[in-house]
């Protein structure tokens, strides 16, 4: 008998093979690449082997099949010249869904939901500490600047809690400790402890009615909103059993923590990008002095924010300027353009429509008219082919400093000489492909986004503080808000509204949702106002109305209310409530609650939000962001992990003979595990692809490698057993351990693990054989490993 030992594993040739000699000779002699048809092949059952091998000195039996399978119908093979018919291949795949395969699938599935590993910034611990502190400061600035209206008057703390007096009967609410219920109302009642009546909030649950004092309710209640049209929860919570709600709340908490990690990685990646700061030149002050109006306080702050981004920071700017129409967003963009262009860079101004692009071109041309060395160009579909070609060449050679246009500016034909700044107006009106192109530019150029009602993703990043934002909510002097009137449609109401405007020598825009029907409306208006000039035009919106100092009116008519969906009614209510000047940001926030977050990070968050509702979800998110460093895990070197179970089974001789170089294969496995989990997964899948499912003894080796690799990533330095006790020594904190336990899908492992003084312990019901104990440890470590996406790993 010959025996070799490597990395704690024995290679033995004393196993007994019962392979039929004729079949073995057949396998040896056959070149399967030359077999043209599957009918020449032996049946599947004849190529299976009965193998025996020693584990702890005890003979065990297990079938093992090398991947001896026929070529496809075209005679084509793969790998070692062997291919698999689909019927056989499907059966083989299902047989290989062992615990290692399931773990690989889970890791790969989670990886696909997130950004690719290559895009994550590599950094040392000291650098990570600095960036995490920056993230916390940025998040606090975001909350203070954008959410000041939701600060509690007494505590000053940020809150998404509901005011009981603003709730309507029938609204769904979330009590932080009890769960989801239906708000009934607020009324006086007498408590058991006092004869004096006090105000109580009454909430209906699945199994009864609850009442709680208004003061207590204001600390514990949240509105239950879902990011889609379905406003009703799947079920109400039970007062008699809060465990189901606790599971939902914990699930939402874990989802929140995963989003925090996504935000961290997105923000850290942006912080890692570098470009030299732009110089501060005296000409910038001269350019600013040309602004003919007195800037509002919010405008002044936005000017300072953008100037600081461009002249003091080394990472590219990505700032949202949010403000209502006519509040001065364009002036902020003009000053940023001047700063960049003065330094020899190009600026691109992107608008969703040619009408808006032409307006920007006119404003920019006039403002830069005294700077003869700065050339402004407009690229539009109305230009002739030769005009377009001329502009493209000028852009390419740097002869145009400022380029204005629509999405065509993002096309492959537009090559920039030295692009430094991208200004995006009304990003929400661009398509998916254009938004992806805009996102790709953010790593290399400074980006300024202007919007009155930003899209959910942009708003979301601004709300969480992970995208710089300046909110211009102060109206210019003498600017009055547009009065918005909501009403069911009648001809009399339309005539009355138009006559009111005509009587004060005003202008009226009658807007329809579709071109079809314009002629009919034209006929109706001509009959009703025979002495008034009427014309048909396309493309005018409410946004062009009400920029002067005279109060403007917007009448929004709808058909019978009973025909409208709940979502439509909510939108109408939001429009009516957000009628004051500077309310565009709040309107966008309401819109996000109504129609959802959108595809924020490549996946819908609807299910996670649905567990607890939007308001509680956001509060949990902000709380988690403010404590981001508490959920940080520090990995340890693979070689420092001590794990020795004295489990060294023998590989069967048939498998050894089948491997081209067994010692080299096992060394490759060890090296792959030392690198990272992805290399180990790739090694295992390649091994199985080439040689088929490994025998049980080889599976034990792989599991030991997986345990050490996952332990290293989790900060576990030692795993040992003592009787029925399994102990893992770790550097993780108790809060990290708690999050891991909350993330676990397996109740068996969740309830058996405890954390004491840097040790994770589990007491089993009985002392297991070593193979079963390895399987238990493998499954336990895999469950802990599943929580990694929710942890900061720097």
Automatic annotation (TrEMBL):
The keyword Nucleotide-binding applies. Keywords: ATP-binding, DNA-binding, Helicase, Hydrolase, Nucleotide-binding. SMART domains: CarD_TRCF, DEXDc, TRCF. PROSITE patterns: HELICASE_ATP_BIND_1. Residues 310-472 form the Helicase ATP-binding domain. One of its GO terms (biological process) is DNA repair. One of its GO terms (molecular function) is ATP binding. It holds the Pfam family DEAD. CDD domains: DEXHc_TRCF. It comes from the Eukaryota. This is ATP-dependent DNA helicase, chloroplastic. It comes from Sesamum latifolium.
